[in-house]
Structures are given as C-alpha cells and as structure tokens.
Amino acid sequence: MIRFDGSPFSGGALVYEEDGALALANGIIQAVGSAETIAASFPDSAVADAGGLIAPGFVDAHLHYPQIGVIASWGADLIDWLNRYTFPEEARFGDPDYAATAAQSYFDEQLRHGITTGASFCTIHPASVDAYFAEAARRGLRAVGGKVMMDRNAPDNLRDTAQSGHDDSAALIARWHGSGRASYAITPRFAPTSTPAQLEATGALAAAHPDCLIQTHLSEQHRELAWVAELFPEETDYLAVYERYGLVGPRSVFGHAIHLTERERAALAEHGAAIAHCPTSNQFLGSGECDVGGSLAQGIRVGLSTDTGGGTSYSMFDTMKSAYEVAARRGQILTPAQLWWLATAGAADALGLPDKIGNLAPGMEADFTVLDVASTPLLHRRIQRAESIEETLFAQIILADDRAVKAVWSDGAKVWPAA
User: With the CA atoms of 372, 373, 379 and 382 taken in that order, what torsion angle do they form, in degrees rounded to the nearest 10?
Assistant: First the structure.
C-alpha cells in the first residue's frame, strides 16, 4: 500500500507498507496499517491487498468529458482545433440522450484508468451538466464539473448570454452542488469567449457561491495571449482580466498556465489559486511547457490533468510520464513520489478536496485503486530488478497502461470492473 505523510515537494514522503490494508465503514477509511493489524482490529471491514498494490485513486484536475468523441484529432493549433473539432462536437450536447451516452463512455474510460475523481468542463447546455453528474452519482463517484459560459467568439449554437449563463449556472448549482458527492465548478471557458458583461456576471455568481470552485483556462498558447491582449487592451496581462472580475482566489483552478509573467505567477501565489498541469495536451497542441517546479517553489498549488480530449490519453500513467519529460526538458527532475503526488493528493488539493480524496488516511473517503505492478511481461521483468518502491512506481509511470488497474473502489465500494 502507498500513501503520503505530506507533499514530497515540501518535506513530506511517500509511505509504503508491503503488506498494507484498509478498514472501511460507510464509505470512509477507518484505519490504515498492516494487513495483520487491520484484520485483527477490524475483522468485518478489512480490505486486504486484493492481490495488488493499494494506492489512492487518481484525481484528474482538468478535462472536457464532451470531447471524448474528438480525442486524437489533428489541428494546426488550439484555436484551429477548437473550431474544427471541439465546437461542432459540443453542439451535439443539447440532446440529453447524446450527452448521457457520452457521459457513460467517459466514466468507463475514467474508471478503466483508475481515476476516481475528475473535474470536467461540460458544454453550454444544462443537459450536459445533468448527464455528467447523474452518471457520476449512479456509479458512486465524486465529481467536479460545470456548465461552460461562453457568449462570444463561438458558433451561434454554442453561445449563451451574460444573463442566461448566470441563471443556468445558478440553477445547476442549486440542483447539484453538494448533492451526494457532486461539487459544482463555475466555468467560464476562457476570457476570449466571454464578454466583459459575462465575466462580471460570473464574478457575481462566484461571490454568491463562495464554496464553489472556479475553473477556466489561462495562458495556454501565444496566439491566445495576443487575442486576450487585443480584446482587453486595458489589462496588464491575461490573469488581470480574471482578477478584475473577482475570479482569482483559493477556489480558482487555471488550466495550463504555461506562459506566465512574473507578476502573474506572484499573483497566483498571493491569491492562493491553483494550476492544472496538462502535459499531454500541451505537447500535442504545441502549446509549451508549464514550469511546475517554479510554480510549486513560489507556493502555487499544482495538480496533474489529462485535459482530454486535447490531451492524448485518459491514462494517468501516460500523463505522469509526460509531466516527467516536460520537467526534464526544463532541467527539473521530478521523483516518482512527486509525480504520483501530483496525480493524487496534489490534484485533490488543487480542487479544494485535500481532506477528502487523493490519499489514504483515517477519515478520508474510501477512493482507491488496486494495481498489478507486473501487468505486462516487460513490467514483470523490470520490477524483478527494482530495489525500492520508488523504482517500481517509476516503472509503472513509464511502462504501465490500463492493464495495471485491477480494481477501483469509490465511496467504499468496488466500482470497477463492473460486476
């Protein structure tokens, strides 16, 4: 069993128990420890090793479930990719049946890859939000999501208005936020697709619901930065647009955040905001390389994200591998413990849920995976030479795929594979 006694970026460490087990009750972890101790103390609730390595469920801090149908689509850059693939696909989500089918497919992929919580952008359609949260609830999953707000620079059938975006979001918050394991995230897509009037309405919504997250995009590509400067010439930089409308704070999660100025980085730290690092997407779309080490050193919270469908894989193993490679090109060497933390406890912290998910400790929600660390012949051969749990975990990061995920537990119940 693996868990954390704190962030490995700030003195914490990965904790490994070779014969570890969990005691569960009512969806909550009651105790962690050796299988012998747990079995003796909690004979009716012990979860032993189940034939694999028990690990915290992966947490995906930024994704787009409606893009499941356009993953792996060629595009010249971000804006071209949005116009050619994403917007036409998202227009389909006004159909509740289509949205429901996509949500089912998305959660199948999420669970198959050992992800127990994701934070998704939906579309402008309330039906897309209903489908997402309803499917998560049916499976007993914690989920974060929200209706995209977008009233300009998008096709006619994908624009709301400042008023309707606010009102639809408020109704969805009332319907879903805090219902079971659902957490609502106020979701302006990004500054170029919202008018100042909509951003002002979004700020009012955030002020009225301070326990909701705010999720959006920030500084993904140079062409995007130039567009923001053209649309908001009075602002110092991209982040200043969001600051003006009260959208930067400890509940804010910014996807990408690659091309930040020193002022923006300092402001993110001062506001207590978080970054969702999306390495496979950033490489696929040629966006650039997020300075994860520098951001963390300045006190900015960072979580790892697939950003599917701009991201190229639902696998958090692939995502950790890409994060390692991006950091290495910047001269930053991330350890296996740090990578695994970014994909679990770090992402949970970015989503404001560090006391609920992303780690295995008494009082936390019982979301975890059981991994086969020798899931392929190559991995079996490789780990025979591993001299530490860190070496075994790094081999998983580089070589493993969905075959490594033997079982997924959520809210104290086994949810994958399906019975």
Answer: -150
